[in-house]
Amino acid sequence: MGLISDIKEDFANAYNNDPALSSRLDFLFNYPGVWAIVWYRLAHRLHNAGFKRLARITMGLTQIFTHIDIHPAAQIGQRVFIDHGNGVVIGETAIIEDDVVIYQGVTLGGVSLEHGKRHPTIKKGAVIGAGAKVLGNIVIGEYAKIGANSVVVKEVPDCSTAIGIPAHVIEKGRCTDPFMHNMLPDINKEMFEYLLKRVAILEHVLVEDNKSVLEEDLELEHIYESFIKAMKN
Hints:
By secondary structure, the protein is α/β, with parallel strands linked by helices.
């Protein structure tokens, strides 16, 4: 596709992915992610044509206005949507395939100072949650989901969900609606619920098996309280 066609598709893609978008005027003030992608398209072509310094200047100015840092050498496919976008960083050798959704605060970064491929590859249809850090030359599979604030340092299979620090895969083989973020489990909540239930069971066992001891302990408590009152008086 040509540059103009790509840019038109980027704007049309925002309408498809964001129900809050009600008019074209909104693009001027509320969609830095769209503008960052649009200017990236131009800078990427300049970079490939050998005008690397001009490409870096273009994206540097874009970063000032959008707070989104995209290296012009990165490879970004069609219909990639950066929602809100503040704080997004996309490194030089990152590859983002078609129909990917990226939320604010995401970093597609490297963990090596060596030349060559050192940034992630995000496959078609993946969703990267707000604040997630995807680091190194790893692959995030097709239609995979990365939970918010996760730190991903290992590859994630197709149709999988990964959450946590470091991220681990909790679901495999499910290619559901990419926007069903409410279906991501709350690991901390589930762990606390487990611990509370476990403690309740142990308390019940202790009470049933040690009723006589508990009665003696309660009697000692009453004696102790009477002693304390006597001392105060």
